Automatic annotation (TrEMBL):
Isomerase among keywords: no
Protein family membership: Belongs to the Gfo/Idh/MocA family.
One matching Pfam family: GFO_IDH_MocA_C
Domain Gfo/Idh/MocA-like oxidoreductase C-terminal per the UniProt entry, residue ranges: 133-356
Domain Gfo/Idh/MocA-like oxidoreductase N-terminal, chain residue ranges per copy: 5-118
Gene3D superfamilies: Dihydrodipicolinate Reductase, domain 2, NAD(P)-binding Rossmann-like Domain
Organism, scientific name: Terriglobus saanensis (strain ATCC BAA-1853 / DSM 23119 / SP1PR4)
Origin organism lineage: Bacteria, Pseudomonadati, Acidobacteriota, Terriglobia, Terriglobales
Name of protein: Oxidoreductase domain protein
Domain of life, per lineage: Bacteria
GO molecular function terms attached to this record: nucleotide binding; oxidoreductase activity
Keywords: Oxidoreductase
InterPro entries given in the database record: Gfo/Idh/MocA-like_OxRdtase_C (IPR004104), Gfo/Idh/MocA-like_OxRdtase_N (IPR000683), Gfo/Idh/MocA_oxidoreduct (IPR051317), NAD(P)-bd_dom_sf (IPR036291)
Length: 363
């Protein structure tokens, strides 16, 4: 690789500071060249050798080849479109846009300009997801009959001073965490037969919809498969992160991938060639419960399953390779369109109480 791809990150809040800048910096072939922070000096303090700009215009006027949009949700479409029109490859944090139509517009624009446009659905590189993906692919659980995935929190009091809890169509928990849970489910199972959902406000005082339940219905081997995707801000005792049942047994995983909390706590992401990046502690591994003889279902065997190593560096390594023409993009603009279309169906279902059938055109 003769020359690194220069990267500019727009935004240095939680997304830019925790999920983007550290992982861009750790991937060979990428250079964190410019940081766009409207005010404050936290970006300069964290990356003293990186150029700091105060406007999107200055960011786009620089010689970067890849723009990472990690600004507040409402700016995503405008900033990503401007970057693509300026001839830059683009990564956009979730939710990519407010609507599936906007995501489709960006996808088409990138295609017309032969540019990479990648939604930051980084949770495909979570260790728990990689583990359950492997178990399903290997047939360990038999035919899967139900799949339940949670991102639970306990925030009974609305936080002040954050745009994420201000009223607005893009500030619900569904728009915050829904894209991750939906993208993981679609990556595992593809297009559902139908979608049912509830997006609502559960806390006593809240400006946003702070809880959701989504049911995706499938048919596998002529049998039903039900996928439940759930999140709430009123889970003092959270549900399992993943719970999967099949004809041969079950898999249950508690806790969340350790990468985000580690970085928030001050951990440094090592270069990608360093294999020492987080391996989940054995105490957090999931439990696999199988019946060796289905005719004797009371005789069960329980084992701990080592969690596959999660690594968000893999997302950016794939983006690098896609920019260079060395690999296909793992998470595409069309994946963002599909996730947002599911969100729109959830909102419609929540209003009407009816299940919605996805249109073929989205897939």
């Amino acid at each position: 690789m003769s020359q690194d791809i220069k990267v500019g990150v727009a935004g240095f809040g939680l997304a830019g500071r925790v999920f983007h800048a550290p992982f861009v910096s750790a991937v060979p072939g990428l250079e964190l060249s410019v940081l766009f922070q409207r005010s404050g000096d936290t970006a300069q303090a964290a990356y003293p050798s990186t150029r700091i700009v105060r406007s999107l215009e200055d960011l786009l006027a620089s010689d970067i080849g890849l723009v990472v949009v990690a600004t507040p949700n409402a700016t995503h479409f405008e900033f990503a479109k401007a970057a693509l029109q300026a001839g830059k490859h683009v990564v956009v944090d979730k939710p990519v846009t407010a609507t599936s139509d906007e995501a489709a517009e960006l996808t088409a624009l990138a295609l017309s300009k032969e540019l990479v446009f990648a939604p930051f659905h980084n949770r495909r590189w979570d260790g728990d997801f990689l583990t359950v993906k492997k178990l399903i692919a290997e047939g360990t659980l038999g035919r899967v009959s139900s799949f339940e995935s949670h991102f639970d929190r306990f925030r009974p009091v609305q936080r002040q001073g954050t745009w994420k809890e201000q009223a607005g169509d893009m500030h619900s928990l569904l728009m915050d965490l829904g894209p991750h849970l939906i993208d993981q489910a679609l990556a595992l199972f593809g297009k559902p037969d139908s979608v049912w959902g509830s997006s609502r406000s559960d806390r006593d005082v809240t400006a946003i919809q702070d809880a959701f339940d989504i049911s995706l219905r499938y048919t596998v081997e002529s049998k039903p498969l039900t996928v439940w995707l759930r999140s709430t801000m009123l889970a003092a005792d959270p549900s399992p992160r993943l719970l999967v049942h099949g004809t041969k047994g079950s898999f249950k995983k508690l806790g969340v991938d350790p990468q985000e909390p580690a970085i928030v706590a001050g951990a440094k992401v090592p270069p990608m060639e360093d294999p020492s990046w987080l391996q989940e502690a054995e105490s957090a591994w999931g439990t696999l419960t199988l019946a060796p003889n289905p005719a004797e279902p009371a005789k069960l065997e329980r084992t701990q399953v080592k969690t596959e190593r999660g690594d968000y560096r893999g997302f950016y390594a794939n983006v690098r390779d896609a920019v260079l023409g060395a690999a296909s993009l793992a998470v595409t603009g069309q994946d963002a369109v599909r996730a947002l279309r599911i969100i729109e169906m959830v909102l419609e279902s929540s209003r009407t109480g009816a299940s919605i059938k996805p249109e073929a055109a989205t897939w």
